[in-house]
Amino acid sequence: MSLAERMKILKDKEEQWKNKGKGAANDSIQFTVAGRMAKRGLVSDTGKEESPLITLKKSNATPVKPHEEISSRTDVKVEGDKRLDKLESFLDKLHNKGVSKSKTSTIEVTAETEKEVMTLDDEETFGNFYKTVSPTTLLDSSVVLTEEDLSQIQPNTPKLTSAVAEHKRAVRPTRRNQGSRNPLRALAARNDIRQVYTEQRLNIATVEAKRIQVERMAKHSRANLADVALAGLASKENFRKVSLRSVKSTEVVTNNSALPFNKLMLIRIKGRRHVQVRLMEPTARSLNSGDCFLLITPKHCYMWSGEFANVIEKAKASEMASFVQAKRDLGCKASQVTVLEEGINTDSRWAKEFWSLLGGQTQYRGAGEPEEDELYESGVLDSNGVYRLQGDKLVPHEDAWASIPSVSLLNSKEVLVFDFGSEVYVWHGKDVPLGDRKVAVKLGKQLYSGSYDYSSCRVNPLDASCTNKDVPLQGEGRPSWTLFGRLSEHNETALFREKFLDWAERKKEEAAQAEEVKSPVHSAERSPFELELQPCDAKALLDNEPEPVKTVLEGVNVHRGHGLVRADDGRQAELATVAVDAWHIKEHGEEELPEESLGQLHEGDAYIIRWKYSITTLVGKRQKPGELSAGAPGRERIACFFWQGRHSSISEKGTSALMTVELGSHRGSQVLVSEGKEHPCFLQLFQGGLVIHKGSREDKNTAVWRLFCVRGEAEVEASLVEVDCQRASLRSRASLVLLNAQKSRLYLWHGCKAHPGARQVAKRAADKVTQRCPSELGLSSSSSLKVEEVEEGAEPEEFTKALGPQDKKAYDCMLQDPGKYNYTPRLFRLSASSGVFEGEEQLYQARVTEGVMAMPFLQENLYSAQQPALFLLDNRMEVYLWQGWQPDDTQCTGSAKIRWNNERKCAMETVLQYCKEKNPRRPPLAYLVLAGCEPLTFTNIFPYWEKDASVASKAPKSKVMLVKEALSKLSKQQYSIEELTRKPLPEGVDPLRLEDYLSDQDFKTLLEMSRVEFNALPNWKQKNLKKSKGLF
């Protein structure tokens, strides 16, 4: 074979290879959107309906930039932003109250009054000063000369000649001076002399008092607060005029009339290079098979993917949906993202809700041409408009018109208005004055509600799908589903941020150390639980030593509210109570309680207890350094506790919190105290006389017999809590008080396992009742109670009748139990909310370091936690794992269910390891307890227990089972084909990895290949194969 022939053969092979590569079998073509559409026969050269957007490439229209400026019009009434108006009103009030430095630190004239000067009469003045002489007296005292008198002159006396007189006159200068006048008369005749003067009063005393108060607050403050903050704290407010709103609603409550989101929003994600995220009309006709959509409401976040949506659109939709759900953006408080795919599970509950929100399932467009995405990207930018606020006008931004916005446009000192057609935003920087913000909002609303013209744009942003003929290219006023919102710097929504070209780079620069948002939407390529949660260290839980009780008031740890403490300067001091006052908080005011009602609280009310105390520094004696003597008495301090009953209303809780500041006279500490979580320093205020009644103070308790359980670890901290008067309320490890006010009878009942310390506390509580005889218990000062102590198992007949028929199974009676119950139960919260599974010990607020605390925990410790929750309860003889319930307002499907099962598995493994660490030779048994199905042995660890019907109805009808058995069931690794294809799936099964639970034989039978062959397939092929076999 010649060389030429060989060259020809090589060229022929090369051409054959090229032709083969250009065919439909080429992977680079057949797995694209165009390839998939070609396989379905949706792309052909003839007989094809042209997409409305395909005409974009034929259009050469250039968008016209408006040159006119937008200024305020008097003929158009536009509502302002209520939130900005309220902020301006608040700042004016704050300024008028003297928070600014010019008002608080400058000495000014506060009052001016005119004072008149007393005018004196000249005649009267002269008459009083000079003595008056009568004419007769002058005549009597005058001298009369006679000739004899002249003869007395001596002849040698020199004579005064006229020459001498003339000489003297010549020497003396001539003066023509006016004779002296009366000075008082001259002064009175002047017109420039005022007979009144102005008296001025200054604010020196007020300024000095405020300065001293601010210095005192700054001295006791741990942080360096600004002058404005200190002045605001020092100001006095009338909190009685404050009206509270209900917080039960899940909707966003705000005064901002320009919220940057709507209650129902359909967001379209379309594009290939820079994906466009735009608001659409929330109807089914806005959908199409070639794009992704997000449907967002206050309670739901749906991600709907069209069959032919490209991977870039799906990735952007998933990223945005997860961000909205995790950050509660756009007013969405959904518990998870619900993913829907076109044509898959169309009969599910979530799909029906999705179509219902869109007004019902109707016909919508199919997928457009493959090049439609890029044409849409460039075409929709023509409608972008950006305005800048200059003075009181909106001026078009030359460089940002009809283009993708850049974050370089945003300036902290500027206001910009972005017009994206279906969305209009007023954005202002953090340094923009309040007046400019109000002007911008007014002009922005004027732009939004005015006329629009998109005739020169290639895409109409109000009807990008070209499905609604009622929306013209130009008109007056935009549709109701469009959005007008106000945004501030660093508070932008995801829908706004996605409009920018380089926002992601800005976020990376600003938050390089920020934690990556964790999405509940999981990709198909990697399971979110490849890194399984690990059980926590059980030994660390056992070895944890709780710290002593610590209550810090005004920088001083008051411990249990009495005795020796460390003063703020580190020296030893003695704490003493000066006075205790209490107020009952009503819905519209408060009522001070009389002294005899001090300590009588109700679980349906809220109270303010004001504690006045002093801390006196102790000094050592020179002769005997070991002995201490009291120094100068310390200053009087105040602490206000606002106690809230577990059934008190929201308005009462809010009023008590506001009244605490008012009653505290802006001094001292304010402490929130919830029922059952009282601090020792609070309990000791009543010296064992605290009684918590059922109901509210206004209710009349007509019960003949009333039962109270005794709580407290010290005699001065004793308290009585009213419980249901029935045998089920008895506890063998506690003491209770049974009272009949009509018969003046009081029974002090002790359980058979009650330790001596608890008995002494109960006696102190009973003694306080007999001493005070409070009217809330139906007693009076003339009542004479007869106290009788009763032991469990030896109750008198009257006691038995009061509690109902004798039934030892009504409570966990320990009369036949030989064990010594001289231990304290321990409670741990198990959770993986931080990303790592860990346990946290729940501590009793009134705990003691030494001694036995028989019942330190309450039912509220379990039921008030965010559900579903997991708790480990160590009762020494046995260990319980308490499992909460799934709330009605959350959806436990998909990834959330997998996460919950993983947490349960870790909790069970932790409990079993805890038991082994507790007693390696004979580990205590561990039981799984479900909320609503708690047995007596569990509920009797708590001082009282109330059954919740709503929780019990959700609990499965199952008995208590061992944790070991529950873990074995949850960790089952193999199921049959029927079990994995039946709904619902078995407990603990990961729906993303159903093939892993098949045996090798079932795997080969169902999927018609081995595991090795299956794992070699690409992810998308694996998913399609599992869908076809029902494993999805």
Automatic annotation (TrEMBL):
<dbReference type="GO" id="GO:0008154">
    <property type="term" value="P:actin polymerization or depolymerization"/>
</dbReference>
<dbReference type="GO" id="GO:0015629">
    <property type="term" value="C:actin cytoskeleton"/>
</dbReference>
<dbReference type="GO" id="GO:0016020">
    <property type="term" value="C:membrane"/>
</dbReference>
<dbReference type="Pfam" id="PF02209">
    <property type="entry name" value="VHP"/>
</dbReference>
<dbReference type="GO" id="GO:0051015">
    <property type="term" value="F:actin filament binding"/>
</dbReference>
<protein>
    <submittedName>
        <fullName>Supervillin Archvillin p205/p250</fullName>
    </submittedName>
</protein>
<keyword id="KW-0677">Repeat</keyword>
<dbReference type="GO" id="GO:0051016">
    <property type="term" value="P:barbed-end actin filament capping"/>
</dbReference>
<dbReference type="GO" id="GO:0051014">
    <property type="term" value="P:actin filament severing"/>
</dbReference>
<dbReference type="GO" id="GO:0005546">
    <property type="term" value="F:phosphatidylinositol-4,5-bisphosphate binding"/>
</dbReference>
<dbReference type="InterPro" id="IPR003128">
    <property type="entry name" value="Villin_headpiece"/>
</dbReference>
<comment type="similarity">
    <text>Belongs to the villin/gelsolin family.</text>
</comment>
<dbReference type="InterPro" id="IPR007122">
    <property type="entry name" value="Villin/Gelsolin"/>
</dbReference>
<keyword id="KW-0963">Cytoplasm</keyword>
<keyword id="KW-0472">Membrane</keyword>
<dbReference type="InterPro" id="IPR036886">
    <property type="entry name" value="Villin_headpiece_dom_sf"/>
</dbReference>
<feature type="domain" description="HP">
    <location>
        <begin position="969"/>
        <end position="1032"/>
    </location>
</feature>
<dbReference type="Pfam" id="PF00626">
    <property type="entry name" value="Gelsolin"/>
</dbReference>
<keyword id="KW-0206">Cytoskeleton</keyword>
<dbReference type="InterPro" id="IPR029006">
    <property type="entry name" value="ADF-H/Gelsolin-like_dom_sf"/>
</dbReference>
<dbReference type="GO" id="GO:0005737">
    <property type="term" value="C:cytoplasm"/>
</dbReference>
<keyword id="KW-0009">Actin-binding</keyword>
<dbReference type="InterPro" id="IPR007123">
    <property type="entry name" value="Gelsolin-like_dom"/>
</dbReference>
